[in-house]
Amino acid sequence: MGALILGSVAPVFTPVVAQAQGAGNAAAAQQIADHFSSVRTMTGEFVQFGPKGDQTGGTFYIERPGKIRFNYNNSPVRVISDGNQVVINNRKLDTWDMYALGTTPLKLLLSDKIDLGGGRLQSVKQDPDMTTLVIGDKKVFGSSKITLMFEPKTYELKQWTITDAQGLDTTVMIFNLRTGVRFTDDMFKIDYQRIAMKRKGQ
Length: 202
What we know:
Blueprint: H1 2-37, E1 41-49, E2 55-63, E3 67-72, E4 77-82, E5 85-90, E6 95-100, H2 106-110, E7 121-127, E8 130-136, H3 138-141, E9 145-150, E10 157-163, E11 169-179, H4 192-199
Antiparallel strand pairs: 1-2, 1-11, 2-3, 3-4, 4-5, 5-6, 7-8, 8-9, 9-10, 10-11
């Protein structure tokens, strides 16, 4: 009899339960995002895993909104975002590859306030040792997305993965974090004059 009752009501109430669970997950995800957004500056060490299995590491620096810098160990390469542009600079070869920050999922990580509304939150997975948020914006980034992994009790960011339009993943694991730090004025400075000279062949 109980089975018959459950069987008859399940189709009626299952969507409501699913909606409630979905709303609960979204609210929990936004709470985590709000906490992370409140961290205005951060620095620490990182290990990066590329789509071909290559591994690099170094030190990173973040300042909201929009600023990030990666200094790689034993490498002339550095990555800098000044809030508008992202450059990959090889100091040995004096090469500069530049991209608009607003066209990359990295913008979602560095936003002044991470807003998961408008369909940007693609999925939430809550495990005892990790909460995983998948965020994207198909109107801006197409199929590219960023996956953020947080410690569920402290909401501390542990790693992120950027998936590009080809489905290739680049993962950054971070540790030895310090927040509330102050950076020098030139920490996120991009040498646009040098880039312009290079483009002119000088």
